[in-house]
Write a structure and sequence with these properties.
The complex is a heterodimer of chains A (113) and B (112). Chain A is mainly β and 113 residues long. Chain A is built from no helices and eleven strands. Chain A starts with a strand and ends with a strand. With 112 residues, chain B is mainly beta. Chain B has no helices and eleven strands. In chain B, strands 2, 4, 5, 6, 9, 10 and 11 form a seven-stranded mixed beta sheet that branches. Chain B starts with a strand and ends with a strand. Classes of the chains: A mainly beta (113), B mainly beta (112). The interface between A and B is medium-sized, with 25 and 26 residues.
Chain lengths: 113, 112
């Protein structure tokens, strides 16, 4: 049972424009959410996270929005750069010592120069 | 600070064999988790070790096992390999009480 879902497996965006990635979850126990970026032949790299007590977290060009009632989060990348071309994974966990991350299947982002 | 190190990077085995993968966490990180990534199932949690004890376990058969040493280094073992075990195996470490996990580059296992 896929508890974290990422639809629209791939996204192409022009350099300088906004990339928006969406993620839905089904388990209401999840209270901590993370986004990872993955290049081929490398492990996932942590990008940004948000806890359920917040609805927005910003770090440079990356902003994550959380809508708890809809069980939905999104990642905004502004402006998109060619180096952002990668697979992006949404992950969720339950805080409090539980390090078990549930991942979505990922979104391929291609930034066109 | 060195990142998470996984060895070997690539491995080819045949059905029925067993394999051991190794993971050295970031210095100071005591929690080590293992994940399997396949094209069909995505990234799936295998197990987590903390202070040499398995703290969480995913939904994988008993052929998949692991252990952690006193220096927090971890190994995972897969016995009686099946073709479907071909995957990228990722190890991640985290600081005590923190949910951000930092991943190694993975071990690509091919079972022929």
């Amino acid at each position: 049972d896929q508890q974290v879902k990422q639809n629209s497996p791939s996204l192409s965006v022009q350099e300088g424009r906004i990339s928006i990635l969406n993620c839905d979850y089904t388990n209401s126990m999840f209270d901590y959410f993370l986004w990872y970026k993955k290049y081929p032949a490398e492990g996932p790299t942590f990008l940004i996270s948000i806890s359920s007590i917040k609805d927005k977290n910003e770090d440079g060009r990356f902003t994550v929005f959380l809508n708890k009632s809809a069980k939905h989060l999104s990642l905004h990348i502004v402006p998109s750069q060619p180096g952002d071309s990668a697979v992006y994974f949404c992950a969720a966990s339950v805080l409090g010592g539980n390090n078990r991350l549930a991942f979505g299947k990922g979104n391929q982002v291609v930034v066109i120069p | 600070k060195a990142g998470v190190t996984q060895t070997p990077r690539y491995l080819i085995k045949t059905r029925g064999q067993q394999v051991t993968l190794s993971c050295s966490p970031i210095s100071g990180h005591r929690s080590v988790s293992w994940y399997q990534q396949t094209p069909g199932q995505g990234l799936q949690f295998l197990f987590e070790y903390f202070s040499e004890t398995q703290r969480n376990k995913g939904n994988f058969p008993g052929r998949f096992s692991g252990r952690q040493f006193s220096n927090s280094r971890s190994e995972m073992n897969v016995s009686t390999l099946e073709l479907g075990d071909s995957a990228l195996y990722l190890c991640a470490s985290s600081l005590t009480g923190k949910n951000i996990q930092y991943f190694g580059a993975g071990t690509r296992l091919s079972v022929l």
